[in-house]
Amino acid sequence: MNDCIFCKIIKGEIPSNKVYEDDKILVFKDIEPQAPVHILIIPKKHITSLNELSKDDAQIIAHVFMKVQELARELGVSENGYRVVTNCGVDGGQTVEHVHFHMLAGRNLQWPPG
Ligand code: 5GP
Ligand code: ZN
Question: pTM of this prediction?
């Protein structure tokens, strides 16, 4: 857990471009944006992946999605729309083992993903 990049970002040991923070979650810009808006929403609690979520985490996850809705309004993308993605495991394309939600917006996103 100590060498988790996202835990280091939460602790301020690695700089990030913060969008929002409270006691439960941190939102910051992705270092390699795949769309005009590409932010990451992460719980401050270290949870390795969706596979490790427990019922105790339900409130945090609900909070994440309510914040996504609010940020979409603030960022002006509610009307045109956006996508929220969580990659899990090798086949899901997860590269950072601290559960996170990508929010992508600002262009017409294609489907299905590659
Ligand atoms: P995953 O591939 O695990 O779904 O997503 C990890 C995301 O974290 C990637 O989109 C990657 O660009 C982003 N990322 C990795 N390291 C850093 C970092 O140090 N700072 C920021 N802001 N984003 C990062
Ligand atoms: Zn972590």
Answer: 0.98
pLDDT in tens, 31-62: 999 999 999 999 999 999 999 999 999 999 99
Cβ atoms of 68 and 59 closer than 8 Å = no
Considering only CA atoms, which of 71, 76, 13, 5 is closest in space to residue 41?
71
From the CB of 32, is ligand 1 less than 6 Å away? yes
Q: What is the pLDDT of residues 58-84, one digit of tens each?
A: 999 999 999 999 999 999 999 999 999
Ligand 1: does its nearest atom lie under 6 Å from the Cβ of 28?
Answer: yes
- What domains are defined for the chain? 5-105 (3.30.428.10)
95 vs 86: CA distance, rounded Å:
11
Q: Which of 31, 94, 97 maximizes ligand 1 atoms within 8 Å of its Cβ, making it the mutation to test the pocket? A: 31
